[in-house]
Amino acid sequence: MTSATNAVSAQRKPELLGQTVVVIGGSAGIGLETARRARAEGASVIITGRHRERLNNAARELDAERTAAFDANDWASLQSFFRDLPVPIDHVMVTAGAPHYGPPLEMTAEEARRGLTEHLLLALGVARGAADKVKPPGSLVFMGGTGARPPRAGLGIASTVTAALPTLIANLALELAPIRVNLIAAGFVDTPLSASILGDDLDKRRDELRATLPIRRVVGPADVAALAVHLMSNTALTGATYDIDGGQQLVS
Fold first, then answer.
1. What is the pTM assigned to this prediction?
2. What's the domain count of the chain?
3. Domain with 121 in it: what CATH number?
4. What is the pLDDT of residues 51-85, one digit of tens each?
5. d(C-alpha 147, C-alpha 164), whole Å
6. Which of 112, 138, 140, 181 is the most exposed place for a label (fewest CB within 10 A)?
């Protein structure tokens, strides 16, 4: 790297300077890493989560502007959160929620209903609450996945939601314009959620991915956070789905 390049890098303006970023699900994993990245790029952050103690720890680390502890899938609590925001905001990142796995024919009606609707209703709820709070050309960034795209036995619910979410996001981009709406579709990301799902098989999965992914490493929360901040800062991007899986779909 030349001295001229160093000088340009040192003078680079932070990408989110003076902006406010809300991270729903911001107390751990991808959400916390996105909040860290936003802070490093000059933003103030507001974070939410279900667990008060973990949320408080994250808030102290980030010097967060404010926090709110609630279940994002509770529609009333979600709308109340947005109503109570004191000032207009610039971006909302949503990492709350998780896919529903399991044989669909063995689920109860309520389990199937939750699996099919929870993630989609969360996106609708955030869009409704944020509509009059986000300043154009601000953005909403949602999280989806790539792993359930190929139809497989036992993944019928997750596959259906995976297919539906990009369509919903594209439509929300039209409904909320000029506010921008985008979706990040991740493969395996090395987070506490992944650890809780895989348990004793976590290290085996990491080794498999290091050996087979074209990038020869495991995707981490910082990789997703970097993409999220780019989607916030690049005002030409809306209505699209951005895969981040280290090439996992190419070799699966």
1. 0.91
2. 1
3. 3.40.50.720
4. 999 999 999 999 999 999 999 999 999 999 999 99
5. 14
6. 112
